[in-house]
Amino acid sequence: MQTPKNEALSILTSLGVPPLGSSGLAAHSPIDGKLIGHVAETSDVGAVIGRAHAAFKTWRLVPAPRRGELVRLLGEELRAAKDDLGRLVTLEAGKITSEGLGEVQEMIDICDFAVGLSRQLYGLTIATERPGHRMMETWHPAGVCGIITAFNFPVAVWAWNAALALVCGDPVIWKPSEKTPLTALATHAIMQRALKRFGDAPEGLVELVQGGRAVGEALVDDPRVAILSATGSTRMGREVGPRVAARFAKPILELGGNNAAIVAASADLDLALRAIAFAAIGTAGQRCTTLRRLFVHESVADAFIPKLAKVYASVAIGDPRKQGTLVGPLIDRGALDGMQKALDEARAMGATVHGGGVHDDFGAVASYVTPALVEMPKHDGPVLRETFAPILYVLRYSDLDAAIELHNSVPQGLASSIFTTDLREAERFMSAAGSDCGIVNVNIGPSGAEIGGAFGGEKETGGGRESGSDAWRGYMRRATNTINYSNALPLAQGVTFDVG
């Protein structure tokens, strides 16, 4: 098997990415922790925004179905490059092979969704109280869309935003995570092929900027960026949100998620076991929808928790390229240190920790760990925070209402689920008195969302929505129109104002 560096460089060449430089952002593979190469940082973000803003004046006039054709071509190019791009996701983000390929499939799926959407940007006809009048709403392109993405989904989140923004008439500027610049270069090269086939797209329609905090801040603060979609930590959102709001632009924030599940007394325990294992362990616990808290009914806890601990002890850990591996590396040593700190805090509170050990046999600078199952004495301390690592805190409960109250007592509100065969329990969990999250599932885990539903959460998760459903509205501006086709001028609410 090739080294991650050699394999990544080969893939980049095959996708048409120019040779990497000798300075700039350092791109590493978490598989071995070693350097792959350097990516040049964008020196003049303002000029990039200027090109995109100029492109908006042309692109907004292109009929939406024609805009959809560009996204259709992007989907075709992604299908052709799926194996290479999926492999690059594995090499740079550390995902196992099926998850790397699955992320590219998600990009293809959102392209398909957006192509259909390009003929369905519907407004409403509204009943009016004035005779001889018609009232309706129309939707128009909003402007340049800045997209800031995180390392854990290095390409799919860009596609969620870009596919919708482009069919809605908005140019896009992408600022990827500094930890995954190579997958961004590859995706941009694939996009350039689609643009070339499209033929007459304006220059600046799809841009890529690379760099650190200053590059992101330029997108956040520039008044020409009408929409700012940012995916990352709640801490990041606390800074981005007020700055975007201060200039009255549209923020789409996808932030932290301290996701939970409830295993009820009536649950199908075999089904729950499989679902929880993927939700808590998949992507080495580095999904925003990763399951981090588990409430198990006391009547089934003694049977269920040991089975779950056995699964944790048996999962294959190692190079994510190898067949059979289920847990690849953490993104870097900072993630590993954060995990160990949280486990130490849990132990100090009296928790029983299953797993959580560090594997040093993969190289001194790689970060591999055994997923940790932590039986907590109370819902406190590290349980209330999101640690971006494979830690699942387990607590027992006796009363469903009390469990839901604990479930909702954390600041985040992204994803949730309940495992039950009791219809009343399921409906209660999905009701207004149930989970306060943006994603509420029954008999599946909180992760693995499909692109057909709007993705996002409440509270400190930011309130943003991306992907399917009616999330397209976040990329457009709404106008209410009233047309008078009569010779009279009746006023609303019965107002009279006679001037002659």
TrEMBL record:
Subunit structure: Homotetramer.
Keyword Protein transport belongs to the record: no
Molecular function in Gene Ontology: aldehyde dehydrogenase (NAD+) activity
Domain Aldehyde dehydrogenase span(s) in chain numbering: 25-478
Designated name of the protein: aldehyde dehydrogenase (NAD(+))
UniProt-listed Enzyme Commission number(s): 1.2.1.3
Name of the gene: gabD
Record Pfam families: Aldedh (PF00171)
NAD listed as a keyword: yes
Similarity-based family: Belongs to the aldehyde dehydrogenase family.
Keywords: NAD, Oxidoreductase
InterPro entries: Ald_DH/histidinol_DH, Ald_DH_C, Ald_DH_CS_GLU, Ald_DH_N, Aldehyde_DH_dom, ALDH7A1-like
Top EC group: oxidoreductase
Catalytic residues, chain numbering: E254
